[in-house]
């Protein structure tokens, strides 16, 4: 119990939270783009798990950065199906999204079994080393908590800055918001609604794939079926908590990671409490945040509705 | 695109339209239209609903293409293939449905879709630009308020402002005053004059004649896709004559009108006002309809018809006044209206029916609270199907399948299904809103016969319609709505193009208003 009063307990929890949040940051930032553009992209879990498996199978014989990149491209390839079926052929977004998630989970499990069971070998990668930032990492407490992360985490934070800039300071960001809020008016202003939605969905697929790859290469190292364990759906919750803001999504992902890490670490303190109860902490917190944020959350008006161009 | 190097874009006639035609399916929307917009003028394009005004505007803006004919813009050949191309050439089209993105601010809308805008959005300079133009035209358009949170009139000003900021050399305003009050309309007129004095010619589309006298320099009348009057001087024009030309000849068609015996008054509308955020509402209406009488309510769409239909069927909260059926006040209560025997043929079949439900459920929907088709709250499917089968037979709904979805029926059969539901018993009052709209001749005749039958059975019938033929086929008496008020009322025998046109275009003094 006294451990809770120690600074190292909390610095370890913050550090663990950021590590656990890393895949969520990639996935929720990408999904925020898709949803701001009006695409309810429920295939996110599928993009992540395809990205995870692909990144391992590429990184195992080559190098991790290549695996990471190709993992993103694999997620994007699955998102291209979303583009084709829902955006271009106007199929129901919810149905296609769930379909892609199931397809991703099933396909990766199948490939994994086929390649490992039948005389294959277990592919794995060694986890990345921490990158210390000189001086800053030496700051007491803060240095332990915030610094000393792998490059996957650092890249995700850089991505937040970039995505925030793109979303609010570029014409592309305005176009994304416009086609999600009011596609008819956006089209009347000469914005190509389907093109913007396509781009936003592909971005979501790419970043979802990167999220899965970051999970695989950054903190797990070897595949198991359904490795992502609902992280794609957690990212969907994060986006709602964040009221579709990029910054909010990054913060929300960290909050989730933090409480997940807290659950793990509390397990060492309260050994009698079942781990399942502690694992439920982030979801309980999410429930509270969702209830409170519903007061101001404003979802994109066109979210989930296909846009069929006239003429 | 359209301007060639060395040409001076400021010279030449701003817009010349030569022999432009456009057909949609079987409808000739525009036929060989000739039209010229001169430099420094506000040119009004007037006509009834469906005359082709908006089609012409869209062709000029580039949203749709003409089938034949040619255009020139400031002396250069002009063939836009998209709205973006039209905008790049300097044509701005401010439409009836405004095209500002509602979830963005005015400053963001300024840069969205703007030809040649840099890829980076500079919020500060966009705000400064909005403020500069807003000051320039003495408006108060907020730069950083979401369009969602702005009143309609300000949205419209913002849209005009953005058009000008984008470098519009020619402005098309499509029904800009239709949702504005008198004060806002005055501000709009002032803005148009200001733009004219800055050298921007305006094509102003409207069917409200009174404001044109003050606003416009010349006018062109379209009727059924043809130019009836081209470029008449507004000051010299007789607006009453223009109004007559707008609607063309009205004649009583050869419809077999049954002789119907007139009873005593069944429907009394007393000082009826409805305020609506959606449309113009209605103000201080007074009329009575006797049993056996068919009253036609005419007017260009959007002049309060929807509010009136809702009020007569108890579906609108009244700002003032009463709707009385057989001595019982049904104001504001749809349930009371149904209990009093008011039947309603909704204008829009997709709203008037539960499209996803079966024919049987729709046909028996008026009984949903009566207990006739339920036992202990459980619906009696057999009884419903049997009763619906009889109704479907009686009203000749095809296919006669009570289990079919209402949405699977053709438009004419949907209308018959709605009639089966509403006219199962003889109504005390029938409110028929556009009862034959979009129907083929056979189905239209069936619906007319239903209206006659309701009157013959002693019901008071109100036919609300923007289609003058429909009204002249059915009605014994006519009232004209303009901006939610009755501008004229007369027996059908007295209906002339002149009288109707003047009342529909707002040239007649409002009559019978006791409030407002």
Layout of SSEs?
The complex is a heterodimer of chains A (311) and B (516).
Chain A: H1 7-36, H2 44-59, H3 64-88, H4 93-117, H5 142-146, H6 151-169, H7 171-181, H8 183-188, H9 193-220, H10 231-241, H11 246-269, H12 275-279, H13 281-293
Chain B: E1 15-24, E2 27-37, E3 42-46, H1 53-61, E4 68-73, E5 76-77, H2 83-88, E6 91-94, H3 106-111, H4 123-136, H5 152-165, E7 170-174, H6 182-197, E8 202-206, H7 209-215, E9 218-223, E10 226-233, H8 239-247, E11 265-274, E12 282-290, E13 294-298, H9 305-312, E14 320-325, E15 328-329, H10 334-339, E16 342-345, H11 349-352, H12 359-363, E17 374-375, E18 378-379, H13 381-394, H14 411-422, E19 429-433, H15 441-456, E20 460-465, H16 468-474, E21 477-482, E22 485-491, H17 497-504
Parallel strand pairs in B: 3-8, 3-9, 6-7, 7-8, 13-20, 13-21, 16-19, 19-20
Antiparallel strand pairs in B: 1-2, 1-4, 4-5, 9-10, 11-12, 11-14, 14-15, 17-18, 21-22
Helix pairs in contact in B: 4-5, 8-17, 14-15
Protein described:
The complex is a heterodimer of chains A (311) and B (516). By secondary structure, chain A is an all-alpha fold. Chain A has one domain (2-117, 148-293): ABC transporter involved in vitamin B12 uptake, BtuC, CATH 1.10.3470. Chain A is built from 13 helices and no strands. In chain B, a hairpin with a 2-residue loop joins strand 9 (218-223) and strand 10. Chain B is globular, with a radius of gyration of 26 Å. Helix content of chain B is 31%, strand content 24%. In chain B, helix 8 (239-247) crosses helix 17 (497-504) and helix 14 (411-422) packs parallel to helix 15 (441-456). Chain B is an alpha/beta fold. Chain A binds chain B through residues 168-175, 177-178, 180-182, 184-186, 188-191, 300-301, 311, and chain B through 63-64, 82-84, 87, 95, 97-104, 108-109, 111-113, 115, 117-121, 123.
């Amino acid at each position: 119990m006294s451990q809770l009063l120690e600074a190292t307990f909390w610095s370890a929890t913050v550090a663990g939270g950021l590590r656990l949040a890393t895949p969520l940051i990639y996935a929720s930032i990408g999904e925020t783009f898709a949803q701001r553009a009006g695409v309810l992209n429920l295939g996110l879990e599928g993009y992540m798990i395809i990205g995870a498996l692909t990144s391992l199978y590429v990184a195992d014989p080559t190098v991790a950065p290549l695996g990471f990149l190709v993992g993103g491209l694999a997620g994007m390839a699955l998102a291209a199906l979303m583009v084709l079926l829902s955006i271009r052929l106007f199929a129901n977004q919810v149905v296609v999204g769930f379909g892609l998630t199931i397809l991703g989970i099933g396909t990766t499990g199948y490939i994994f079994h086929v390649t490992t069971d039948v005389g294959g070998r277990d592919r794995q990668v060694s986890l990345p080393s921490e990158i210390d930032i000189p001086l800053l990492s030496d700051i007491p407490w803060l240095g332990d908590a915030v610094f000393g992360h792998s490059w996957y985490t650092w890249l995700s934070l850089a991505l937040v800055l970039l995505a925030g800039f793109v979303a609010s300071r570029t014409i592309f960001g305005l176009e994304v918001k416009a086609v999600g809020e009011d596609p008819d008016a956006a089209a009347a202003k000469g914005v190509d609604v389907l093109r913007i939605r396509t781009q936003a969905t592909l971005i979501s697929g790419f970043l979802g794939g990167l999220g899965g790859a970051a999970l695989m290469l950054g903190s797990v190292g070897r595949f198991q079926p359904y490795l992502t364990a609902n992280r794609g759906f957690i990212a969907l919750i994060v986006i709602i908590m964040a009221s579709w803001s990029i910054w909010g999504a990054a913060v929300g992902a960290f909050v989730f990671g933090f409480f997940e890490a807290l659950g793990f670490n509390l397990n060492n303190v309260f050994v009698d409490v079942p781990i399942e109860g502690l694992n439920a902490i982030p979801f309980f917190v999410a429930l509270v945040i969702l209830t409170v944020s519903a007061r101001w959350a404003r979802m994109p008006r066109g979210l989930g509705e296909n846009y069929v161009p006239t003429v | 695109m359209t301007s060639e190097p060395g040409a001076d874009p400021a010279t030449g006639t701003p817009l010349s339209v030569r022999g432009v035609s456009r057909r949609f399916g079987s409808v000739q929307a525009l036929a060989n239209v000739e039209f010229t917009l001169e430099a420094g003028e506000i040119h009004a394009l007037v006509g009834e609903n469906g005359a082709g005004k908006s089609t012409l505007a869209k062709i000029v803006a580039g949203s749709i293409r003409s089938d034949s004919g040619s255009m020139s813009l400031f002396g250069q050949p002009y063939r836009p293939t998209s709205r973006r191309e039209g905008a790049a050439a300097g044509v701005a089209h401010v439409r009836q449905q405004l095209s500002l993105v509602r979830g963005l601010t005015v400053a963001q809308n300024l840069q969205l879709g703007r030809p040649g805008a840099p890829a980076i959005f500079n919020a500060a300079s966009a705000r400064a630009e909005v403020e500069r133009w807003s000051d320039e035209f003495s408006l108060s358009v907020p730069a950083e308020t979401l369009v969602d949170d702005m009143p309609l009139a300000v949205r419209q000003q913002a849209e005009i402002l953005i058009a000008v900021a984008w470098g519009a050399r020619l402005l098309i305003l499509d029904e800009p005053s239709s949702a504005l009050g008198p004060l806002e309309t005055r501000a709009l007129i002032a803005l148009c004059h200001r733009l004219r004095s800055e050298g921007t010619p305006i094509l102003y589309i409207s069917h409200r004649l009174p404001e044109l006298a003050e606003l416009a320099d010349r006018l062109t009348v379209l009727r059924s896709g043809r130019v009836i009057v081209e470029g008449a001087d507004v000051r010299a024009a007789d607006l009453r004559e223009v109004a007559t030309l707008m609607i063309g000849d009205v004649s009583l068609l050869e419809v077999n009108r049954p002789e119907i015996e007139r009873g005593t008054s069944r429907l009394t509308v007393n000082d009826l006002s409805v305020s609506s955020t959606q449309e113009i509402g209605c103000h201080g209406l007074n009329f009575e309809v006797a049993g056996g009488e068919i009253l036609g309510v005419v007017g260009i769409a959007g002049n309060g018809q929807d509010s009136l239909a809702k009020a007569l069927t108890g579906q609108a909260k009244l700002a003032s006044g009463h709707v009385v059926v057989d001595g019982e006040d049904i104001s504001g209560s749809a349930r009371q209206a149904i209990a009093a025997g008011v039947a309603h043929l909704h204008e829009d079949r997709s709203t008037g029916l539960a499209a996803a439900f079966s024919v049987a459920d729709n046909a028996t929907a008026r009984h949903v609270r009566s207990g006739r088709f339920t036992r202990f709250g459980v619906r009696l499917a057999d009884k419903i199907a049997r009763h619906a089968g009889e109704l479907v037979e009686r009203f000749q709904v095809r296919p006669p399948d009570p289990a079919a979805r209402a949405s699977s029926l053709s438009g004419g059969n949907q209308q018959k299904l709605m009639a089966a539901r509403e006219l199962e018993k003889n109504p005390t009052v029938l409110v028929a809103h556009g009862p034959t709209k979009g129907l083929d001749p056979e189905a239209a005749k069936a619906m007319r016969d239903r209206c006659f039958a309701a009157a013959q059975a002693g019901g008071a019938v109100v036919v609300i319609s923007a289609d003058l033929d429909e009204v002249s086929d059915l009605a014994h008496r006519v009232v004209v709505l303009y901006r939610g008020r009755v501008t004229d009322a007369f027996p059908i025998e007295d209906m002339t193009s002149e009288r109707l046109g003047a009342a529909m275009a707002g040239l007649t003094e409002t009559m019978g208003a006791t409030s407002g």
